[in-house]
Amino acid sequence: MLHFVCGVSIVIYGQIRSRRSWYNSEQGKRLIQWWMVRACRILAIHITVTGKASVQQKTLFVANHISWIDIIALAAVVRVKFISKESLKYWPLIGWFATSIGTLLIRRGKYFVVTRIVALIKRELKHKHAVLVFPEGTTTDGQQVALFRSALLQSVSHSDTPVQAVALRYHTATGLDRHAPYIGKDNFVFHLLRLSMRDKTQLKLHFTPEFSAHKLDRREVAKLARENIISALESRPYPVQQQAADRQVA
Fold first, then answer.
1. Which residues pair with 212 in a beta bridge?
2. Which of 65, 57, 233, 237 is nearest to 149 (CA)?
3. Cross-strand partners of 204
4. pTM of the prediction?
5. Which of 23, 197, 233, 247 could form a disulfide with 28 if both were Cys (CB 3.0 to 4.6 A apart)?
6. Count: domains in the chain
7. DSSP state of 26
């Protein structure tokens, strides 16, 4: 709670100094990342990273989605803006905090809203602010990767914007972590308490090879990103690398 109060203080300080766009400044990004790193330590989230995150500021990151703690963990590793469901803003305090640090909210199933969010993503990328989306549209138990919805990926199709898929897996010494997923009718408070009472939550982040969407439409971007994530989770060659190898052989 004290750390959350610290985060609220950071938001208020940033808004006073730089108004609503404070989170776009270098100092703002640094403060947000510091808060996320500290939050991971408090929640005992131990992150192992494989691969290398893109250093290009206008990258669109694509990840599978398992829990609300995905956002905290990813933001501790890379400086990105997130796309989240509109319902997040109704979470007490958490919703206000998320929107105050630049999270973009979307109402699922509304075409005109999706079109607006796509335009917002394009604007953020144009101004060299990395964005991360969860194309599954919901959380899963981590045992599979659901089909990706391609609507938001229209923001990068047929462009030179780099795309990088990130695979997340929560695990224990004996296999998949059954407690980390936040799915179904889980209650946020009870889930937070459950995590807080554990010794450690192990999370593996796999940054797959980035690729260009220059010759890809949104469905092709979604398919390739999903295949890269599945390949990372199953320790198979990435489709991007395999395609390159096939071209060399040919």
1. 162
2. 65
3. 48, 169
4. 0.88
5. 23
6. 1
7. H
Which of 5, 157, 133 has the alpha carbon at shortest distance from 81?
133
Among all chains, which residue has been given the structure tokens 């807080």?
196
In a domain, 178, yes or no: yes
Is 15 part of a structural domain of the chain? no
Strands 162-172 and 211-212: antiparallel
For residue 191, what are the contacts with CB-CB under 8 A and spacing of at least 6? 67, 68, 182
Residue 91: other Cβ atoms inside 10 A: 13
If phi over 0 gives left and psi between -120 and 50 gives alpha, with beta otherwise, what is residue 169? beta
The answer to the question of residue 69 being in a domain is yes
From first to last of its 250 residues, the chain has per-residue pLDDT tens of 898 889 888 888 888 877 667 888 888 899 999 999 999 999 899 999 999 999 888 999 999 999 999 999 999 999 999 988 777 777 767 778 888 888 887 776 565 577 888 998 999 999 999 999 999 988 999 999 999 999 999 999 999 999 999 999 999 888 888 889 998 788 888 888 888 888 788 999 999 999 999 889 999 999 999 999 999 999 888 886 445 434 433 4
Structure tokens at 206: 């796999």
* Terminal Cα distance for the chain, rounded: 59
Residue 26 counted as domain residue:
no
Taking the C-alpha atoms of residue 15 and residue 17, their distance in angstroms, rounded to an integer, is: 5
The residue segments making up the domain with residue 48 are 44-249
β-bridge partners, 201: 45
Q: What are the backbone angles phi and psi of residue 31, rounded to the nearest 5°?
A: -65, -40
> Does residue 91 sit in helix, strand or coil?
coil
What is the SS3 assignment for 37?
helix
